[in-house]
Write a structure and sequence with these properties.
There is one protein chain. This protein has a domain at 1-185 and 289-354. Helix content is 42%, strand content 2%. The chain has 9 helices and 4 strands; from the N terminus they run E-H-H-H-H-E-H-H-H-H-E-E-H. It has helices at 11-15, 17-20, 22-49, 54-74, 105-109, 111-130, 133-144, 149-169, 300-333, and strands at 2-3, 93-94, 235-236, 239-240.
Length: 359
């Protein structure tokens, strides 16, 4: 995922955001119907060949891109209207999807069962970030004209998890969804203990000798380069880094996204990728993730995510309890039976109706 970062938004479009998104809902409805049949065909093909057909991978990838762009527009991550396109186009929230690769046939066969934990967890977080937090944030953006950076990072993490889950469920990748709390933030490297009798603020009598191995200095960015944005493409000299070779689509136009200097240590996008034990499966390539593919959830953003999980769990349990109560009430109401007046004969004067759950 690539994010351009929080930016000013037009208050008029924020006020009518849901109404403006109605055409997107209509188009996605019909695209989703076609996507269902494409996914069924792709499921059978992947089950026997271990690989999704090219046409299915291309269509489902475009459908995931379209859905994520619309969700980003609804979550107020951007003010730019989503394009009506299945292609990988310029947009402030850009999913970078994997290319067509081998799939585990056992995982494909049990796709729906394996998807339950990730689907429930994603729904819990979306509930926590929607009711009523999204309404409150809608008011804040109307007043201030900009989304708070902490909430921008929180919604970015939730949207990235949705992208990974949809990509896995649609068999675009064999890697299970992970990273709702962002990527791994490593602990500081271990250092040697101070000498005995050392006092804070005091200059040590014998400082340790400097290390002979010095890391190479990073190249200085050009003077005319724009300031860094969170979750942006890093810069290597005067050329911007390009998406990975397995991005699943053709490269965008030259010069987009704009070249950005590498963010400082501790900033979003500056952390190394998660270790192997934090992932459900290892990536196909041993190369580390680029910095634009790394999202770090810390500080207020992490607190908001914890709040979303707790509050979303309460909503999820309450919704299921309410549905269970309604189902029991409807079952009880269905036990009332009316006997027509013209029905007569022996044995019909006393009719006993049993509930389907009675022994």
């Amino acid at each position: 995922m690539w994010y351009s970062g929080t930016a000013p938004q037009r208050r008029v479009t924020v006020v009518f955001r849901i109404i403006l998104a109605i055409p997107q809902f209509v188009v996605l409805f019909f695209l989703g119907i076609a996507g269902f049949f494409v996914a069924v065909i792709g499921w059978f093909a992947a089950l026997f060949t271990g690989r999704l057909p090219e046409f299915a991978h291309s269509y489902l990838s475009g459908l995931v891109r379209w859905e994520i762009r619309v969700n980003a527009y609804l979550f107020l991550l951007t003010d730019q209207y989503p394009p009506f396109s299945l292609d990988d186009v310029e947009y402030p929230v850009r999913p970078i999807l994997p290319g067509r690769g081998p799939l585990n046939r056992v995982s494909v066969f049990f796709r729906i069962i394996l998807a339950i934990p990730a689907a429930v967890f994603s729904q819990i977080v979306i509930n926590g970030l929607t009711l009523p937090l999204l309404f409150v944030m809608w008011i804040v953006v109307i007043v201030t004209g900009r989304m708070p950076p902490a909430l921008y990072t929180t919604y970015s993490a939730a949207l990235r998890y949705q992208t990974r889950f949809h990509s896995w469920f649609d068999m675009l990748t064999s890697e299970y969804a992970w990273g709702m709390f962002g990527d791994f933030v490593p602990a500081p490297p271990a250092s040697s203990p101070p000498p005995l009798g050392a006092v804070a603020g005091e200059t040590p009598a014998a400082p340790p000798p400097p290390s002979t191995a010095q890391p190479p200095a990073p190249p200085a960015p050009p003077q005319d380069q724009p300031p860094a944005q969170p979750f942006s493409y890093p810069s290597t000299g005067a050329q911007a880094a390009t998406p990975p070779a397995d991005a699943g689509s053709e490269a965008g136009p030259p010069g987009w996204p704009p070249p950005q200097p590498a963010p400082p240590v501790g900033a979003p996008g500056a952390m190394p990728p998660p270790t192997s034990w934090e992932r459900t499966s290892l990536p196909h390539s041993a190369e580390p993730l680029p910095s634009w593919g790394i999202l770090v959830l810390q500080g207020a953003a992490k607190s908001w995510m914890i709040f979303a999980i707790v509050w979303g769990s309460i909503i999820f349990v309450g919704q299921n309890a309410f549905r269970g109560h309604n189902n029991n009430h409807n079952t009880t109401s269905g036990l009332v039976t009316t006997v027509p007046a013209n029905v007569s004969g022996p044995g019909l004067s006393h009719i006993v109706v049993h509930s389907p759950v009675d022994p």
